[in-house]
């Protein structure tokens, strides 16, 4: 076994910190940049909300689709494969428009048809398209789009667990849920984490697509301000700075978590291999 190489000094991180510090000083020293920053940052709450809610829902839906794809039922497997292939073949922007302006109206029509007897009896009001906010239409679209990618990540991670360990768990009398919780998932998660974290960072960036629908996220606030002030350079420099701050910070946090999971103390089940 060769000598262990010393980790490289993170010069890229030092450069990024230096640029971030210089940008922060520029924002603090300039009235114009402070004004742009205060306007744009007002949309960060929407960006964070869309990212967290859509990614959480996409993870749950993706896990369900992944388990369907690993089912013993051919109908469930084929349904999962159909869903994944159809959804991930459509650009996210196109899917966003389709959900917002086609899918939601179709859902409202179907809902009103199903609940017509209750509406006639005065037990509930008819649903109208405008009752479904553009924010939630964007969240639903991102949920559906990312669930197809996350499903494939989960499927690959689960299949990476050695079959012998699952058979051993069966021999010990563990049920399907306990096998998944105690044997499969802890080992699969270490394989899943890098691509799963990458999808989370991608979701932060793709949340800017909701501005197409007029949702007041960071990008939309920047578009409105730049259109009125013609300060495009300053405005979009601030937007880039905010997204870089968010994504680089998340990337560092995920790398730290990956390193912790690779440590000897976290190697669940490795001692018995």
UniProtKB/TrEMBL annotation:
What stretches pass through the bilayer?
44-70, 90-114, 134-154, 238-257
What keywords tag this UniProt record?
Amino-acid transport, Cell membrane, Membrane, Transmembrane, Transmembrane helix, Transport
Highest taxon of the source? Bacteria
Domain ABC transmembrane type-1, which positions?
44-254
Annotated InterPro entries: AA_ABC_transptr_permease_3TM, ArtM/GltK/GlnP/TcyL/YhdX-like, MetI-like, MetI-like_sf
Output the CDD domains linked to this UniProt entry.
Answer: TM_PBP2 (cd06261)
Q: Does the record's keyword annotation contain Cell inner membrane?
A: no
Which Pfam families does the record associate with it?
A: BPD_transp_1 (PF00528)
Q: Where in the cell is it found?
A: Cell inner membrane; Cell membrane
Q: How does it sit in the membrane?
A: Multi-pass membrane protein
UniProt similarity note: Belongs to the binding-protein-dependent transport system permease family. HisMQ subfamily.
Name the NCBIfam families for this protein: HEQRo_perm_3TM
Its annotated function is as follows: Part of the binding-protein-dependent transport system for glutamine; probably responsible for the translocation of the substrate across the membrane.
Q: Which PANTHER family match?
A: GLUTAMINE TRANSPORT SYSTEM PERMEASE PROTEIN GLNP, MEMBRANE COMPONENT OF AMINO ACID ABC TRANSPORTER
What is the protein's given name?
Answer: Amino acid ABC transporter permease
Q: Which organism is it from?
A: Ollibium composti
């Amino acid at each position: 076994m060769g000598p262990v190489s010393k980790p490289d000094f993170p010069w890229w991180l030092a450069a990024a910190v230096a640029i971030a510090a210089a940008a922060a000083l520029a924002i603090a020293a300039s009235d114009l940049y402070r004004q742009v920053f205060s306007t744009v940052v007002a949309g960060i709450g929407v960006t964070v909300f869309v990212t967290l809610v859509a990614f959480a829902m996409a993870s749950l839906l993706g896990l369900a689709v992944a388990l369907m794809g690993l089912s013993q039922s051919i109908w469930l497997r084929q349904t999962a494969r159909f869903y994944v292939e159809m959804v991930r073949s459509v650009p996210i922007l196109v899917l966003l428009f389709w959900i917002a302006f086609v899918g939601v109206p179709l859902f409202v029509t179907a809902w009103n048809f199903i609940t017509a007897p209750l509406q006639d009896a005065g037990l509930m009001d008819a649903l109208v398209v405008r009752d479904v906010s553009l924010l939630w239409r964007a969240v639903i679209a991102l949920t559906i789009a990312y669930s197809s990618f996350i499903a494939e990540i989960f499927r690959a991670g689960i299949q990476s667990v050695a079959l012998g360990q699952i058979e051993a768990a069966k021999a010990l009398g563990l049920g399907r849920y306990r096998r998944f919780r105690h044997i499969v998932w802890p080992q699969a998660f270490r394989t899943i984490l890098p691509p799963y974290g990458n999808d989370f960072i991608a979701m932060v960036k793709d949340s800017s697509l909701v501005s197409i629908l007029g949702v007041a996220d960071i990008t939309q606030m920047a578009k409105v301000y730049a259109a009125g002030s013609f300060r495009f350079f300053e405005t979009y420099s601030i937007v880039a700075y905010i997204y870089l701050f968010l994504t680089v910070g998340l990337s560092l946090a995920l790398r730290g978590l990956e390193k912790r999971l690779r440590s000897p103390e976290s190697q669940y089940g490795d001692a018995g291999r």
